[in-house]
Fold each of these.
Amino acid sequence: MNQQGMLDDINEEVHYTRNLIGKDALDARVMEAMRKVPRDEFVPPDMKAAAFANGPLPIGHGQTISQPYIVALMTDMLAPGPEHRILEIGTGSGYQTAILSQLCREVYTVEFVAELSAGAADIFKRLGYDNIETRIGNGYQGWPEHAPYDGIIVTAAATHIPAALVEQLRPGGRMAIPVGQPYSHQELMLVRKDARGKVLADSVLGVAFVPMVEAPTGNLDQE
């Protein structure tokens, strides 16, 4: 499987789920970002051969890199624009972050596991993705210092839609977030805040994500 095969698989998944996601094709800019970013740079060495397969892969610390279709779909759900500021909760491997970096002005990404955050930051530097800022911290709290955000993407399943993230979303902004209990039924939700600040949340399709971790006590945030 190569990069083109991955794109073909994404298009096939879009076709199969078109009645759920409400479209026959993802935005061309999103697909171009999926073509440009080398997914194989974001997986462990022993997973390189499977890097472009349309499925999640383990990256250590009980975390995964999401399947390419889900990365593309969640990116498309945000409708990212060139001047947008995006918040990501769950840096993980950094692959989703890198995709977003090709589509917007700034990406701020928060990760609970320090080793994953450091590893992703090293890859961003090596590949020249210089519009990304990383932070170690509690994703449920977001990153209020840079709010409001035009889009927020959460790459682990939250038990509920965090009020702090809704607060940090700009009026007119969008959030893509999987919601549900760990290792049980989860729904990928599109959360929209209208110009008056009213929040609307719609289920897009069923998903399976690792659970979003919340710090039990204390402040883990580090710049």
Note: The radius of gyration is 16 Å.
Amino acid sequence: MKDSLYNYTLRLGDTSLILAQRLSEWTGHGPFLEEDLALTNIALDIFGRAKGLLEYAAKKEGKGRTEDDLAFFRSDREFFNLLITEQPNGDYAKTMIRQSIIDCFDLLFYTELAKSKDLTLAGIASKSVKEITYHKRHSFSWVVRFGNGTEESFSRLQKGLNEIWAYSGELFEMNEDDHNLIKEGIAVDLDSLKQKWELEIKELFEKANLVIPETLFMQQGSRKALHSEYLGYILAEMQSIPRMHPNAKW
């Protein structure tokens, strides 16, 4: 079970880390000052969650590595983040539709994880729920705003949904690690979240006049460390300074 807990926590940490790195790309480029600050703070919240999860993963690994080692000194084939988090931001409408899909899932997921028998995971989750509640309200409001704005804002929103929807199915993929930890009362049964997530997302999309793309194919691969071409570029930028100066103290 130790390996399963390490793998599970690492996966959650990776997903938060890459999502936060993507969102941080908007820093200084938001549509207006208040929104620039809002999204920067959301990215910082998610970075904080990533730090806690990777710190715990390093502890469970028991090889003397730190959360920084896990973040900055692994290759793309050693990362297990969800594919949706590494997709390009696109315009602000695409970023918000991606974020709404993730926020809706995360609030359901971390609410359940807060009940975990693993007290460290439960503690991280409890803190995260408070933050994600705000994140979800923020992204949902922007989706409705874009969907009921101008013809161009709606068009950009629908285009963003069309591009990102195929990555949403992976949110609910489970493997042996999940099943092992579910039996121990540690992990979240993702099957139990899917129906509620679908209802909330459909309700949001109806408010924004969006049409869910008709596709039967969902992208997968992150559970086996298989990624899109984008992850390598994210890591190259994120890891460049630590790799150039591995002994630097901040």
Note: The domain at 2-244 is CATH 1.20.1260.10 (Ferritin).
Amino acid sequence: MTHDHDGPHEHDLGLSHDLPALLNRRRALGLLTGAGLAAALAACSGSDSSGGTPATSSTPSTSGSPSTTNATVDGEVPEETGGPFPADGSNGANVLTESGVVRSDIRSSFGGTSTTAEGVRTTIDLTIFDMNGSEVTPYEGAAVYIWHCDREGRYSMYESEIADENYLRGVQAADADGRLTFTTIFPGAYQGRWPHIHFEVYRTAADAQKATGKLRTSQIALPEDTCKRVYATSGYEQSVQNFARTPLDSDMVFSDGYSLQMANATGTPDDGMTLKLNVAV
């Protein structure tokens, strides 16, 4: 599938295109009437995108055993659009059924090719929680399928020049503490979107490989100062221009709030970046 990076992606066409997905967010429930919808649209620019705790989600308590710990989290991660390039079988390509998709290091393609995506080495460290009312526990065994664009802003398996690649896609299952990690590269910025990482949460890795039992589809937002530092390095030149064109507060996914989706970033471009996020489902 050929993609023109001079224009926005299909999932960047605006609120009218992704309204069904956006209305799944908890803050939009009950706003389906004309007056309610108008209020929701007006609230987009004034939501917790500029306040609250944008840098990271709440840090969980670690007292007690992993299976019974009550963690402090602010709420379930919002449901978001998966975009047009999920490769989960919902839009053509399906990487989930391919042998080798369950892996931690997703920088290289697997199967018929071994091409490695270039860019700043990045570790994605997620902790998955099962949120049942006031009780929050680590979600042992929950699986996350993660995917994102490469340094040039392209998605493997879809765009013509990398249609035969499947890099920057993979599945991991959470350990007893609900934690899982991926080794990847820092994604580039393409026109029309704030830098982000897509993910889906499944009950088990087996469910993920069959694309069944999906619990949530969402996106991780990347901190502004971190993006600026990474995009100042060689190879990310085009990202500098694209990044400046789409402020976080006007991004079509994050404009109505991102406190539960903003990663906590540490590290340096030279030594590697680490992105951490607590994800409650």
Note: The chain has five helices and nine strands.
Amino acid sequence: MLEPTLRIAALYPDQLNIYADRGNIAVLENRCRWRSIGCEVTAIGIGDQIDPGRFDLFYLGGGQDEDQRRCAADLLECKRDALVEAASNGAVVLGICGGFQLLGHWYELGDERIEGVGLLDVETVRSDGPRLIGNVAIETALAGSPARGVLAGFENHGGRTRLLDGATPLGRVLKGRGNDGVSGDEGCRSGNVIGTYLHGPLLPANCWFADWLIAAAIGSETSLAPLDDSLELAAHQAACAAAGVNA
């Protein structure tokens, strides 16, 4: 029987690549390789078209405001319809920080509104208040996650993201600020489309979540083969401790 292959589309890797978040792709590649699962990563840049049936997982990292403007315009011009189609067919879409904001309906910078692709029912406004910065830990309820489903990372954003009526947060804040510093919500999830502000990068400190993404993307009907995750679990415990929670 042929081994499955995880086909990843890395959107705008030259623009949306701050906070070492490209390390998330490396984690997915390695955890597939260690299990003899194929992994193909394709960089999708400005002006490139998307074949909605070609990829299992789409990844958007974070970027500076000007880079987000350019990527948002390109998303609307030549990628949104294909991305929406891919998500409706079960592809996983993961947006980190700026990528999270671009998956929502819009991001408002003063009098300027940057339109998003609308895969998540969220709206973001740049606040005049202080940036939300620091170690953060959240508790999720993702199917197949560990008992508490804790994700730990680092947040650094000036936007305040609001979930619209009926939208589901990725998790509830245990320590840190989350989407807006007030609601207790962090991130958003709609099916296999996930947005979060957790940097660090996210997946090296949360290997169970990397495995959740892989299984969801390749449609694995059985659990992934276990790995020796002693180092990864130590990293998770350290990230949780930095945020002030027990792993």
Note: The chain has a mean pLDDT of 94.
